[in-house]
Amino acid sequence: MSSIQILFVDDEQNLLDAFKRRFYRQKNWVVRYATGGEEALRMLEKQPCDVIVSDIRMPGMDGVELLNKVADTYPETIRYILSGYSDRAMILNSMNVAHQYFNKPCNLELLEESINVAIRVFGELRNPRIQKLLASIKNLPSPPTVYDRLSREFRISDPSMEKVVDIVKTDPAISAKILHLVNSAFFGFRDSITDIAQAAMMLGTDVIRSLVLVTGVVSATFRRTCPEDVLDRFSSHSISVAFLAYDFSKWLGWNREMRESAFTAGLLHDIGRLVLISHFRDYIHKIPVNDPDSNHTIIDERDTFEVDHAEIGAALLSIWGLPIPVVNTVMCHHQPSLTAGDEIGMPTVVHVADVVSHHQNTSTPIDPALFDPEIIRRYDLTQKVSQWMMTSSLFVQASSN
Ligand SMILES: [Fe+2]
Ligand SMILES: [Fe+2]
After folding, report:
1. pTM, full prediction
2. Ligand number, closest to the Cα atom of 333
3. What's the CA-to-centroid distance between 237 and ligand 2, angstroms?
4. How does DSSP classify residue 32?
5. Nearest bound ligand to CA 266?
6. Rounded distance from Cα 315 to ligand 1 centre (Å)
7. Most buried residue, 90, 236, 258, 352, by CB count within 10 Å?
8. Buried b (16+ CB within 10 A) or exposed e, 94-119
9. Closest C-alpha to 83, from 31, 155, 7, 158
10. What are the start and end residues of each CATH 1.10.3210.10 domain in the chain?
11. Rounded to an integer, what distance in angstroms lies between the CA atom of residue 200 and that of residue 195?
12. Domain with residues 139-400, CATH architecture
């Protein structure tokens, strides 16, 4: 593997020393350190880098200004920003320029892992096959405005339920669609939910934010280019995978933040299909849309269109600025072993949820051959999945209905 050039920029020498102590073990990283924006730019002139990690608040040129300059001159560089919660206004300004945020004090282990994932994901997304398709799509869908506004609020702090509800309510079409979804049989609420405030209370604000993204994009963008029955199937499959991923990660003992990320990744895992269906008129005739063996789908898509929905979905989400772990999960949801570590990670959770979702309403047991064989072996997954399904209320409810 060729070496990776990384530049850390921070005016606090203590933090740079901590980086040095931590990162010297990364044998394929070539790490440089700068104590300010001007020095960083001079270093980049001599040798550009693959990843830049910059503090947001520095004397002279701040992190936002630095990353803007880097984005202009070296658009391929992956840009991280380190910020404190008090940097509210600056964080807002950096929204369009940073690929990923880390709060100070910084968890160096997570930062290290995230940089390694980002390098792999961005490396793969620069594949000419994917770039060629992206370049040929005239109107690449953009996330709905309401989602942008919610993301800003979440970036600054943990917004109140009222704030989230107020923002969602500004888009009546999205509000109506969310209410339609939460009242669907899948959620299993006994009483019908009649307003967004009630839905936010039952589901949590992060789940509402993800639902805004999917319903907004589906209704605003793909409604024009995809047949309605395809969109309906997409929505119900996405919701089902999101909830299964959330539930499985809860069974695995993940914390709330990780469960909510798994939910978002589950909700968005197949969004690349909508891009392919919209772009290739013959997609629906050539690719079976409901094939439970989704590995066939990936192979058929590659054979027919040169790209598959997992990679094009990941590319779209990276353009939208979704967190790198979510982008990585979408990219690997059919073959999580590509990115699997010692512990079960988000790509495996969403992969399991996807396979289980295709079998949720059938009484036949799941064929283990539908899972990525490597993760079955590595995590003893067949047993874990059946234990989870035996205890989860999602399945207990479904079988008693
Ligand atoms: Fe998929
Ligand atoms: Fe799927």
Report:
1. 0.78
2. 1
3. 7
4. E
5. 2
6. 14
7. 352
8. beebbbbebebebeeeebbebbbbbb
9. 155
10. 139-400
11. 9
12. Orthogonal Bundle (1.10)
